[in-house]
Amino acid sequence: MSWRLWLPLLAFAGFLGLAAYQLTQPRDEIVESRMIGKALPYFDLEPATASLPGAASDDFKDGQPRLLNIWASWCLPCIAEAPQLERLRNEGATIVGVAIRDRPEDVARFLERHGNPYAAIGSDDLSEVQLGIGSSGVPETFVITGTGKIAYQHIGDIRERDVPILLEKLREAGE
Amino acid sequence: MRSLCLSLVLALFAFAPLAAQQSVPPAPFAYRQLDNPGEEALAQELMETLRCLTCQSQSIADSDAPMAGDMRHQVRIRIAAGESPEEIRSWLMQRYGDYVSYRPEVSATTWPLFAVPVLILIAALAIFRRRFARRA
Amino acid sequence: MIAELGLAALWLAAALAVLQLVAGALAVRQDAASGETGIADLTRPATIVQGVFAALSFVALLYVFAITDLSVKLVADNSHSLKPMIYKLSGAWGNHEGSMLLWVTVLAASGALIAVVERRLPERMMQAVLAAQGFVALGFYAFLLLSSNPFERLPIPAQEGAGLNPLLQDIGLAFHPPTLYLGYVGLSVAFSFAVGALITRQVTPEFARAMRPWVLGAWVFLTLGITAGSYWAYYELGWGGWWFWDPVENASLMPWLAATALLHSTSVLAARDALRAWTIMLGVVAFSMSMLGTFLVRSGILTSVHAFAVDPQRGTFILFLLAIYIGGALLLFALRAGAVSEGARFSVASREGALVVNNVLLSAILAVVLLGTLYPLLTEAFDVRVSVGPPYFNPVGAIFALPMVAVMAVGPLLRWRRDGFGRIRRELALMGAVLVAALILVSLIGEVAFLPLLGLALAAMLALASVMPLRGRNLRRVPIATWGMVFGHLGLAVALFGMASESAFTKERLAALAPGEETTVGPWAVTLDQIAPAAGANWTAMEARLSARLEIGDPIVLTPQHRTFWAPPQQTAESVLATRWNGQLYAVIGNQAGATGAGPERWQVRLWWKPFVTWIWYGGVLIALGGALALIGHVQADWRRRLVRRKAAARRQEMGREQPT
Fold it and tell me: How far is C390 from chain B (nearest CA, A)?
């Protein structure tokens, strides 16, 4: 009988250890995509603005790795990352945008005001591409290999320190 | 993600006079029920067990986040197209992992969730046996 | 000045808690036979004075909030000179520091109450109980004084307070937290009793009777707190759900489950001197669950839909307290409980047999809820995120809850000690008949899922069974405590009926209506008459005028709003409820529907018809009423017993004096 009396204490100690460990862990509420390493799902989006072509999954299969940037003109962090996208483009990255629930005139105004690093922007009014690749918010940036495989996901706005990482991932994706 | 979600909300309002996100209509089936009541019931049951990814701790059936609306649209059109709720659930789980579903599946990481209640049941029966079998 | 006095009172109370702890501990160590008392005698007075100082401190906090003393940081952060007085006062406990002070004040006040009135237990045990109580209070004093001083001054007084968020000015929000705290504190008293009993190795029916009112009181407040919280979420969140198995909701449910089990095992201990170690264990578990709930809610360690001021540092402190108290108590339990025999044995067909089954099942439900709530925490340690939600809790909980309802129906009909099912076979047959009839009836009504179907049938059976103990008795002579049991069980039947009915028969309608158009939901035909802007102090809204009609009778007008606040920017759906005896019509207005080009403006209207949903909360109130009646009944009975004893003692004394003459 007596060993059973220690069970509650044991269970409690287990909980304490777990809770203490979790308290030291930073709280991130990031939901990572499970599509890394898988092929980009099929999509063919209308242009989000008159000045640029739309985006389709087939465009990603020409052997050249690209960045797929999920964004929207109504999203504040997207403004914050605009200069970093500009830098990435200047370093030779090809950036394809997917604008979520956006209107052409808002997209055009955003590009005018914050610069246009995009080679193409597809308009995703129903979050179909976003759901298809396992993205859960804006902005997010994916590295896509030249064969159309999803290689890497960056969640949140791109900061200065993320630029070299993304370029490195892009280089790896090209190999 | 929460700060992201918050900034998203703030962004939404900061831009409200300029861009008014509301002017982009929600997905057709975000707030529209399927005409077939049987299909709608299936969709509703499924939506209540899927987690909204932008405003967490709410199911997509309960959330007004635009993304939840888009997810409801996906669920409804797929149900209407003849997919089974479980196919849709696993389609989403392939993309977002177990987290998106409020119904834990028996897997390498979740088996204790199901094993422990069985153990409790066995322990309860054992207690009853010990207590009641020994009466004089 | 008042703030400083409040702080001084808090320090003094803390010092007295130390005295209470030391004096009580010395009293326990003293040889009981030596008759020496000394410092041990200070235990009770220290407890009483501590209660007074804690109360003074809380009054000081109320005062600075009432006059909106903006040089106090807590006031500046959480209040505003323009708030109505009631919200100024509720602002005193509507924040972390203030709520902790309220908690410790109620704790100290209950300690003082015990010190004044509780005389039937051996003095040595009482001192152990009070020492444990002082120890618990000390932890909270340390928490307040070292890391969350509610009386902290600002170097420069603020111009105006920051807390005028109208979303938080809600009468439900003002009284929901203190209700739960009262429940938590009641459980901490039960915890102190359990620890005192373990230290002195005296687990007796008298001990159970002394502890029972505290458990009952705690249970009543927890029941009310959960009921109110559930209703508040139901109408405020605007999606028609009343329980989502969210971590914060579970955090309030777990202490309730433990307290319910404790309540029933205490009855067995009081009546039959059995389940001794088990009752002690539940006493410790119930308080652990309330501490755990506080920890989960305040540390923000789990994601929840219910926003709460979250601070990992406070989480660390609470976890530390949890480790000391619960770890210490469980260690004590492991060391001592072996020496506490379980007491009398009994047969399965007896009142206590049913209560044991009920206890084990309640504990099993508690274990399932605990497991499901903490499991995501466990997997996250391995970087895997999982969700455990209604599709897990509902069926797995039901495996244990539904048999428990069946036992609840039968148990009260059985006698204590030994009984046979043969004696109550007519009652059992009647209950079985009701169960089967309800099952058939509901299946005929329409397609109902398995769990709600079973829930409806069991609710009908339990409702009948819960009033059966009154059968054939003179209602005016039924003890109040028995009425308490009847109401408590009937309340659960009512609540279960509401839950099952809501789940089985709810009708939902989403419609994009243009003014003048009509839609239907359940038996209602609802027309959107018009939609017009409305404005409040810091919001604008679109207000819909809906008229809802049944086949007969006048239409009723509903005016749900879609509000936009600008400081802080936030959109809320103000739902409107039309309550009928047999359910609620729930209406929410959403955004303007997607412009489909030509045609009139359409608006998203969301309607639910929820048959008998209100019975969930009526049931909750009935359960609390049952608890209150049981509390009154037991306290009254104890009081009478004490009077009788005192009279007998007086008579003996008189006779002793008379005899020599």
Answer: 7
**DSSP string over B75-116:** HHHHHHTT--HHHHHHHHHHHH-GGGBSSPPPSTTTHHHHHH
Euclidean distance between CA atoms C427 and C654, whole angstroms: 52
Q: Which of C465, C481, C399 is nearest to C429 (CA)?
A: C465
DSSP label at A45?
A: P
Facing C347 at nearest CB: one of B22, B110, B132: B132
Q: Please report, rounded to a whole number, the percentage of residues in chain C having pLDDT higher than 90.
A: 48
Positive or negative, the Cα torsion across C227, C233, C236, C239? negative
Domain of residue C429, residue span:
424-506+613-661
Do C563 and C539 contact (CB within 8 A), yes or no? yes
With contact defined as beta carbons under 8 Å apart, do C624 and C538 qualify? no
What is the pLDDT averaged over residues A88-95?
A: 92
| DSSP H or E segment with residue C249 | helix C247-272
Q: What is the pLDDT of residues A67-76, one digit of tens each?
A: 999 999 988 8
Residue found under tokens 């929840």: C304
pLDDT tens digits for C204-230?
898 999 999 999 999 999 999 999 889
Question: Omega into C568 within 30° of 0, i.e. cis?
Answer: yes
Test mutation, A1, A18, A23, chain C, max C CBs within 10 A: A23
Complex-level ipTM:
0.87
Give residue-wise pLDDT tens across range C233-280: 888 777 788 998 988 899 999 999 999 999 999 999 998 888 888 999
> Residue C526: which of C602, C583, C587, C594 has the closest Cα?
C587
To which residue do tokens 């409806």 refer? Answer: C456
Kindly report the number of other CB atoms within 10 A of residue B94's CB atom: 14
Assign domain A30-174 to a CATH class: alpha beta
Closest Cβ opposite residue C381 in set A8, A22, A31: A22
Residue C382 C-alpha, separation from nearest chain B C-alpha, in angstroms: 9
Closest residue on chain B to A39 (Cα): B95
- The reply to whether C129 and C158 lie within a common domain is yes
Neighboring chain C residues of B125 at a CB cutoff of 8 Å? none
- By the 10 Å C-beta count (0-12 exposed, 13-18 middle, 19+ buried), A119 is classed as middle
Q: Could you give the number of structural domains in chain C?
A: 3
Which chain A residues touch C if contact means CB-CB below 8 Å? 1-2, 5-6, 8-9, 12-13, 15-16, 18-23, 25, 27, 29, 31
Residues C492 and C566 in one domain: no
DSSP-derived letter for residue C498 is H
Encode pLDDT of C449-496 as tens digits.
Answer: 899 999 999 999 999 999 999 988 888 888 999 999 999 999 999 999
Residue C10: inside a domain: yes
Write out the residue range of the structural domain in which residue B132 sits: 106-136
Handedness of CA A116, A121, A125, A128 (dihedral sign): negative
Domain boundaries, chain A: 30-174
Contacts of C331 in chain A (CB under 8 A): 9
C432 interface with A at CB cutoff 8 Å = no
Rounded mean pLDDT of chain C? 88
SS3 C585: strand
Q: How far is CA B80 from CA A124, B35, B88, C563, in A?
A: 21, 9, 12, 33
What's chain C's Rg over C-alpha atoms?
Answer: 28
Please give the full DSSP string across C400-460, using - where no structure is assigned.
HHHHHHHHHHHGGGSPSS---TTTTHHHHHHHHHHHHHHHHHHHHHS---HHHHHHHHHHH
Task: Say how many domains are in chain B.
Answer: 2
| DSSP3 helix / strand / coil % (chain B, rounded to 5) | 60, 5, 40
Tell me the C-alpha distance between C160 and C584, whole Å.
42
- For residue B93, which residues of chain A lie inside 8 Å, CB to CB? 34
